[in-house]
Amino acid sequence: MTVPSRPRSGVDALDRNAIVILEEALQLLREAPARAFFCYALGTLPFVAGFLWFWADMGRGAFAASRCLPASMALAALFVWMKAAQSEFAAILHRHLLGSTADAVTHADRFRAAMTHAAWQAVGFLLIPLAFIATIPFCRVYGFFQHLTILAARERTNRRELAAKARAQALLWMMQQHLMLLALLFFSAFVFVDIAIMLLLIPEMARIFLGVEGPYAMSGFHLFNTTFLAACAALTYVCVDPIQKAAYVLRGFYADSLRSGADLFAAVAARGEAP
Amino acid sequence: MTEADAIEAQRCFHHESREAVGRCPECGRTFCRECLTEHDDRVLCSSCLKRLDQSAAAAPRRRRSLVPALQVVAGFILLWLSFYALGNFLLTIPAAVHDGTLFTDDGSSP
Predict the structure, then answer these.
(1) Could you tell me if A88 and A42 are in contact, meaning their C-beta atoms sit under 8 angstroms apart?
(2) Please, which residues have CB within 8 angstroms of residue B80's CB and are 6 or more apart in sequence?
(3) Does the pLDDT value for residue B59 go beyond 60?
(4) Does A59 contact B95 at a Cβ distance shorter than 8 Å?
(5) DSSP bridge partners of B31
(6) Which one of A150-164, A185-199, B24-38 scores highest in mean pLDDT?
(7) Better-scored residue on pLDDT, B2 or A48
């Protein structure tokens, strides 16, 4: 057993390196039950499909202007649905961290999470871009909305207390959060490029190896097509967001552990189960 | 006979076989140890406590339930308007930009 080089106590004791958090997040996703991913996909894929349809229709549709209002309302509903499903995904991951096999989320929790996101996420649409432009508060604002998503289906309190807890967790370990988001940004850029290359090459490979030439392959090179770029961005989001959510679940878990010692209980429980 | 002796001689209003240990200041009846509870630095019986709770919560409860609902409605409308603004922005972008043919001479894909 290794001995730490210096004694750490209080908040610092659970301040992990950003790369360690991301590695633990990947490990958490590997160990997570399939129900978690099913829940995530059930919420995220409809919104992604709806968003891409919306983007393509508003960009090319002949009567898109008449459809903009109802389509944007449907997209808003799908967005709330997606955030509620992501909250349930985070709750299942949190339950797995605690070593509990009980059902994570009830219908009342889902409804409460959906109402929380309907009330709060629109504010995020305004604040996050402003915080990005201002740069310095971006991590705090972004972290607040991520922690809000993580806690929405798990905490059975009113919205004010939920927001206060999300804010407190977002303000913990800022350097860790900065580095974590920076690492995820670089990773996302690589994933985006990989997906773009894959989407460009697959029709060509199908034509070469299978002799299949559909309209997409015949239409030529579409790197500058906005719908193509939006599709790449959407697929990148679907690939990277689970890792980000798992990392924020871990941040929330360690933040709770400062008072409850949940990480110690989980470690003892894990040792009890090991042969 | 002192007041304490008088109370001791009395019985609980709910449990006749038990001796009373105190008097509720709201209803004036005597009760045993289990029927009295401390609330706001006073010892009250369960019936008066329940009545006080209901009357305290009745008026503001209706107001509290409206504000969260209004927050949800306002938030959803704001979300809807955000996507509507995005849609309008996409509508204003020329088709050549969406197609990726902006930088080609004949409008074909690069």
Answers:
(1) no
(2) A72, A73, A76
(3) no
(4) yes
(5) B22
(6) A185-199
(7) A48
Q: What is the pTM of this model?
A: 0.74
Query: B15-43 in b/e burial notation, b at 16+ Cβ within 10 A?
Result: eeeeebbbbbeeeebbbbeebbeeeeeee
Query: Tens digit of pLDDT for each residue in B44-54?
Result: 888 888 888 77
Tell me the chain A residues in contact with residue B110 when contact means C-beta distances shorter than 8 Å. Answer: 220-221, 223-224
Q: What is the mean pLDDT of residues A132-137?
A: 84
Amino acid at A129: P
B79-102 mean pLDDT: 83
Size of interface A-B (CB pairs under 8 A): 94
Q: Is A218 on the interface with B (CB under 8 A)?
A: no
Q: Do B68 and A59 touch (CB under 8 A)?
A: no
**Which runs of consecutive H residues, i.e. helices, occur in A206-225?**
215-218
On whether any CB of chain B is under 8 Å from the CB of A73, the answer is: yes
**Encoding tokens for residue B61?**
């409860």
C-alpha–C-alpha distance, residues B70 and A260, integer Å: 35
Nearest to A143 by CA among A190, A185, A178, A110: A178
pLDDT, tens digit, for every residue of A91-119? 999 988 887 766 667 888 888 899 999 98
Q: Which chain A residues have a beta carbon less than 8 Å from that of B107?
A: none
**Among partner residues B78, B87, B97, which is closest to A122 by beta-carbon distance?**
B78
CB B106 within 8 A of CB A71: no
How far B62 CA sits from the closest chain A CA (Å)? 16
Confidence of residue A27 (pLDDT cuts 50, 70, 90): very high
Residue A169 Cα, gap to closest chain B Cα (Å): 23
Q: Is A158 on the interface with B (CB under 8 A)?
A: yes
CA A236 to chain centre: 11
Would you call A123 and B68 a contact, using CB atoms and an 8 Å cutoff? no
Q: Which of B100, A226, A228 is nearest to B109 (CA)?
A: B100
User: What are the phi and psi torsion angles at B94 (to 5°)?
Assistant: -60, 150
